[in-house]
Amino acid sequence: MPIKRSEVKRAQERTAELLASAGIVLTDAERESIEVAGFGLDQLEQQGLELVTYVNTDRYCAKDLVLFPRQTCPEHLHPPVGGEPGKMETFRCRRGLVYLYVEGEPAASPQAAVPAGSEPYYTVFHEIVLKPGEQYTIPPNTKHWFQGGPEGAIVSEFSSTSRDEFDLFTDPRIERMPRIVED
């Protein structure tokens, strides 16, 4: 399902404000190019992600990810592409809390809530809670998902080359590359 241009614009403005409040300065071009990933689910506030990509070359990538309060980036993995092992990424929490779930021993009582109606598509529950200044590295080809805490979160991502169009999501309804429609 496409996302409306007005919804993208509101999310971009909100994202820029959150980054500015954390002391992260964006250029005008970066503000205008904030990616709003709604995943085609028409639930941006529940399942979505806002991204600023600073650099993405054939060797490395640096981004800031913004999660609104309790907003969830759905479960996915970064598979091998073109003979490369898949993206390895390090998440470093800058503000708020991030509930990160990866493959491994499930948490007895996960702190994040799976978005209603999407329960069958969330399968990994090994919990890592990142507070500001803490980081975690996700190996290539590893299922993971993450959710902002009650006040949302800002996460810096440092990774090998990002090829988002090849991400594999557990939920078959997801469209990774946004389709934007005028309203």
Automatic annotation (TrEMBL):
Keywords: Carbohydrate metabolism, Isomerase, Manganese, Metal-binding
InterPro entries found in the cross-reference section: D-lyxose_isomer, RmlC-like_jellyroll, RmlC_Cupin_sf
Keyword S-adenosyl-L-methionine tagged: no
Enzyme Commission number, as recorded: 5.3.1.15
An MF annotation (GO) of this entry: isomerase activity
The keyword Flavoprotein is annotated on this UniProt entry: no
Enzyme class: isomerase
Domain of life where this protein originates: Bacteria
Cofactors required: Mn(2+)
Enzymatic reactions: D-lyxose = D-xylulose
Similarity field: Belongs to the D-lyxose ketol-isomerase family.
Protein's recorded name: D-lyxose ketol-isomerase
